[in-house]
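Hello,

Following up on my earlier ticket. Below are the three sequence lines again, exactly as submitted.
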Amino acid sequence: MNYHWNWGIFLQQVQAGEETYLDWMISGLGWTVAVAMSAWVIALVLGSIVGTLRTSPRRILSAPANVWVELFRNIPILVQLFLWFFVVPELLPRDLSMWVKQDMPAKEFFTAAIGLGLFTSARIAEQVRAGIQSLPRGQMNAGLAMGFTLTQTYRYVLLPMAFRIIIPPLTSEFMNTFKNSAVAFAIGVLELTFQAKQMQEDAGLEFEPMIVVTVLYLVCAFAVNRVMAVIEKRTRVPGYIAGAK
Amino acid sequence: MIDIKDVSKWYGSFQVLTDCSTHVSKGEVVVVCGPSGSGKSTLIKCVNGLEPFQKGTITVNGTSVGDPKTDLPKLRSHVGMVFQHFELFPHMSITENLTIAQVKVLGRSKDEAADKGLKLLDRVGLKAHAHKFPGQLSGGQQQRVAIARALAMDPICMLFDEPTSALDPEMINEVLDVMVELAREGMTMMVVTHEMGFARKVANRVIFMDRGAIVEDARKDDFFGSPRSERAQAFLSKILQH
Amino acid sequence: MFGSFDFSVIPASLPFIWEGFLFSGTLTLVAMLGGVVLGTLLALARLNGGPALAAVATTYVNAMRSIPLLMVILWFFLVIPFITGTPMGAERSAFITFTLFEAAYYSEIMRAGIQSVSRGQVNAGYALGMSYWQTMGHVVLPQAFRNMLPVLLTQTIILFQDTSLVYIIGAKDLLKAAEITGKNYNRPVEMYVFAAIIYFVICFSLSFLVKRLQKRISIVR
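Thanks for your patience. The regenerated structure is below:
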């Protein structure tokens, strides 16, 4: 292969500024983590609520939850981001619309976090629903028989077990959130993928930025995996077949 | 026909077969019995190479099963096997189950294979079900089809791995009847089973296995009349309670 | 709120959108067919391939599943011309990329499917004298496919959504067509909404059909 490697490029200054390419990479990592973590928190909170509502026997609760899931599941994430970035501001009342388009700080970041968060919330909702529905029917009955209201039964009996059961698919989803955060490049978030492309153009090198960014994504995936493994261990229920090892 | 010499097998560090030696002559019917975990299913699966073994030799009609140079598919096409859970192919019709190996392995024409399949189906009393699918048949019917499927390959001997253990009691006899007839026609058979009535009727010899070893290997009358080992005696007394 | 919107741009945009949709659709079909075939081979390599082949297949599958698809698209776009020596357009590169990428996901599905077929079926095939490939081809894979069909189709719907990511290399798919049309007619909002609606209708209908299919299969069992 005729490629001349130049790893020293990272310590070199960028064309139009004082920072080094390494600074760009680190900044990219920072934005990736920021978008992914914010989206994950939003998704976890909303997804748990929507997923729980989907299991409700009352149509008035489950129907909107179903709509939520179908809406955010059947449109590609990139298209959803464009909708949030280009379309939603136009739908807001005039003053708010102007503020969002012109004065809002870090609007790319917030758009990405909300867009990715809602997209992921639909997937988490499905996993929460599956987790709840995999519990034996008797658990709900046992909770109600003790005098718990439906809400209390969900809170003290069903959800604690359901969440433990779904830790493996939730881990996947957490890793997916980091991978999906790459889509934010398209609306101008300075995350890793954006930096990879930008450095390729600015430094005139193709492989070095790609390799470093890829490695950083792998590091994120590994970190997520480890964190979830720790959580799984800490919350394990002794003697329960699915979790015990 | 089947020669088993000093066969030992390990799963990792756990030994499942210990120095097993026996033989089945042409036309003989040998029943293998013993408690669960005794290794009888494992032994019979070694005979046609479905399970590998680390020590000893097994020869079927002169061909060594353990030899890496042996063409196992070719050997298996001449040895019929019937499984505890029937293992008919659920996505194929009964006819297709009977013909697929004849066509793909033995190279017979589709018509030839269908003819033979239908004849054998008739022999086991199930001609009317040729176009059905396995899921539509009862357990006893499926097992009879499985026997026909094995016979369609014109095997030189037949291996049976607990053929009636998964059947409801009322269906056991319809399968045993087919097997008895097969034995009376002179087929060489090695049968792993708990059905002592069958053994008494048509077996020539009975082998008793316990914890991976062959504990007793005697002619039928000797085995049932005066078993030599304590374990065989204990086993027989428990089994023959009903 | 909707006062300043002008949806008359949509009829005018249809020819471009149709072309973009054809590309997205073709890409999906090709990647699905190629991905399932390659994925099945990867699954077989992992299950029956011996330690070396299994390790290679496992590494491949894990690598594809750990990196963002956008990065995979960029990688192939960069590397293929290096290997072949000739430059390659975004569209062509997308076909190769998506087939190889989706194969990793299809292989996980097929691996589960193959393992769902009982060992006894394999033994029965071998006992009749069938070779490994005969047993796989006539006995195991037909059953594995039937078992996993709903999951395979769901993955294809995800694949269709993923094709929108060719945006990063400028390939002219449905989304890009909507964006370009939006810029040309100065009506980006209407076009993005239109694209979203198209994706939604297609994906929603297909997943509805998959759910129906799932019900039919479970009755037959």
